[in-house]
Amino acid sequence: MTSSDNQTKPRKTLLVSRDGELIKMARGAIGSSGAHQIIIAEKSISEVGAEVRDGQFDALVIDMDATAVGDFEHLQKIKRMTGPSTAVIVISQNFSPAAARILIQLKVTDFLIKPLATSDFVRSINNVLKNSSDEAQVEPQFLSFMGASGGVGNTVLALEAAAILNRFGHRIGRSTCVVDLNFQLGSCAEYLDLEPRFDINEIENAPERLDRQLLDVMLARHKSGLSLIAAPNKPSDMRSFKPALVIRLLDLVSAYFDYVVIDLPRSWFPWTETVLMGSNRVFITADMTVPSIRHARRVIEAIAEKGGKQIQPKVIVNRMDNRKNVAGLNAGDVTAALEGQLAGTIPNNYMLVREAVDRGVQLGDIDPSNNVSAALSAILLSDSEEAAAQSDAKSSLLSFGRKLLGRKAA
């Protein structure tokens, strides 16, 4: 077989389970066609045998009882049949320290605990398959942007942040998605001249229906490679949505994208705190006016009341004018007013931003060396972060849901 044959051969994963919910989730998350196929064996671990070896699978996902000695004996037989070249992921309802030690001794690749999030399942499989190709897998990063007041350019900065991460990610094999959570009045699709395709009505009452296939249908894709989740505008339909819908959406997005940039509405919804808690970095966008800076401070205080020290928001001051203004606000006043909460400032380049928005293109398409992108890049990609991102060291895999649970437990 030639190397080109190996590259085009689909990767195959076998799931051994009698759990109907797990099987349904796995089929929706991966499917049975394309570059990655999942084959289902609706059997217990004690019922599988030579088909495991003869199927030549790249990965095995074994649903077993971690309290049963017999299941561990069967797992050991399966490991002997498949050899070290086949990755083995174990799923169980409960894991004791003793069970974990046995699995480590058996050199299973990963083990997951039910109930299982789709993103955990997909990331675990992707990780073992990429590891077999000597590719590194990293934890997805969530960046949330919220406007301190109206008209401060929050959407522009969120989209430009995504564009910067998308360009940076292409160099190291990572993908980027923008999620516009302003379901009624979002502008991300308009700014990128894309059709908003996220149909909330289809999944509002059954968030579990959102799987990989449906997500692919609802994604809008920019020519730059950036993906977008945005709903069609419905200004007259001002209502909230259950947190389960938002969590399901972000959890699924985290399974397939490395960078997730979230454009948050200014209004506080029942799910806003959840999104902020699950974000790696939270930016409050203000502009260089006294009311906007005051609003930014109030938003920071509100976040502290809701999330305490688990959320560390920073302010980005947009349209910054560093010239001394005797009658108005100066750069020193802004720094003093934000009391160490300032992430950085963005220069005022109104004509560039307006042209980009009107044409539905990214700022770099007009001027690759523009000062807005340069300033935002300095905030997002510090030297230490860029070095860490390029490191070969593998970080732990955390879905949006697992990240959120971990922070609440802290």
Summarize the structure in words.
This protein has 410 residues and is α/β, with parallel strands linked by helices. It has two domains: 123 residues, Response regulator (Rossmann fold, 3-Layer(aba) Sandwich), CATH 3.40.50; 269 residues, P-loop containing nucleotide triphosphate hydrolases (Rossmann fold), CATH 3.40.50.300. The protein is built from 19 helices and 13 strands. The strands form two sheets. Strands 8-9-7-10-6-11-12-13 form an eight-stranded mixed beta sheet, sandwiched between helices. A five-stranded parallel beta sheet has the order 2-1-3-4-5, covered by helices on one side. The radius of gyration is 24 Å and the shape is elongated. The chain starts with a helix and ends with a helix. The relative contact order is 0.12.
How many E-type strands?
A: 13
Roughly how much helix do the residues carry, as a percent range? 40-55%
Structure classification: alpha/beta
Number of helices, counting only DSSP H or I runs of 4 residues or more: 19
Overall form: elongated
- Biggest beta sheet attributes: 8 strands, mixed
What CATH calls the topology of the largest domain is: Rossmann fold
Return the CATH class of the largest domain: Alpha Beta
Overall average pLDDT = 83
Low-confidence residue ranges: 1-7, 133-137, 383-398
Report strand %: 15-25%
Please, what is the CATH homologous superfamily of the largest domain?
Answer: P-loop containing nucleotide triphosphate hydrolases
Q: Tell me the radius of gyration.
A: 24 Å
Record the strand order, biggest sheet.
Answer: 8-9-7-10-6-11-12-13
| Annotated CATH architecture of the largest domain | 3-Layer(aba) Sandwich
- In the residues, how many domains can be counted? 2
* Cα end-to-end separation: 51 Å
